């Protein structure tokens, strides 16, 4: 079975059976090499990622031990299977794009954006596949250094954009009833994210739940005031006004 590397959740290596890595330094090292897959990574960058500004004595020997362990347990020998090369003063993990979930995320996200204007149903399917790739907090437990931290922030932003795209295209194809539960969960995860709250208001209204749509606005305003000291943005206030005057169409049949 071809090996796959999953970064969009706890780090896993999927071969005959899933492998969850328990040694923190090895987990961080493999994650860093996968984030920079097919690029040379200087040993100094890896040392900083693993030990910060205060590496131990004989740090390069320690790094070599971890690299050797990764080669034995988590990489292959054939091109594209996850071959870990020594490259100059560092290392390069050669992996085919199809073997990393992050590449699949980028492909599906780009497909959703490209199709949204002309084929909403196909865009919805693409966004759905992208959202499904996230298995929990990205690289949970190993945000030790700048490379992993930056990647975690980037992945979270992409997930938010995929959730917005999924919700937007769901509304376009009339999937507002099914969307309510999903948006309720997502607004709990991202309580300050106004676009998702607006989409929840619109989903409730189109499902014939006007009172709940207005209640969702008031909850959003309360959270924004308490957490940021801000009022909802103009588009949310305008949506509330449209719901109050029933200018938002179409209503559920």
Question: What is the H/E order?
Answer: EEEHEHHEEHHHHHHH
Question: Ends: how far apart?
Answer: 49 Å
Runs in which pLDDT lies below 50 for 5 or more consecutive residues are none
State the total count of DSSP E strands. Answer: 6
Q: How many DSSP helices? A: 10
Describe the structure.
There is one protein chain. The protein is 58% helix and 9% strand. It has 253 residues and is mainly alpha-helical. Helix 1 packs across helix 3 (59-73), helix 4 packs antiparallel against helix 5 and helix 6 packs parallel to helix 8 (194-206). The radius of gyration is 22 Å and the shape is elongated. It starts with a strand and ends in a 9-residue tail after the last helix. The model has no long low-confidence stretch (mean pLDDT 91).
Quick take:
By secondary structure, the protein is mainly alpha-helical.
Write the SSE topology.
Elements: E1 4-6, E2 12-14, E3 18-20, H1 24-35, E4 41-42, H2 43-51, H3 59-73, E5 81-87, E6 90-95, H4 101-115, H5 120-132, H6 146-172, H7 176-189, H8 194-206, H9 210-228, H10 234-244
Antiparallel strand pairs: 1-2, 2-3, 4-6, 5-6
Task: Quickly list its features.
single chain
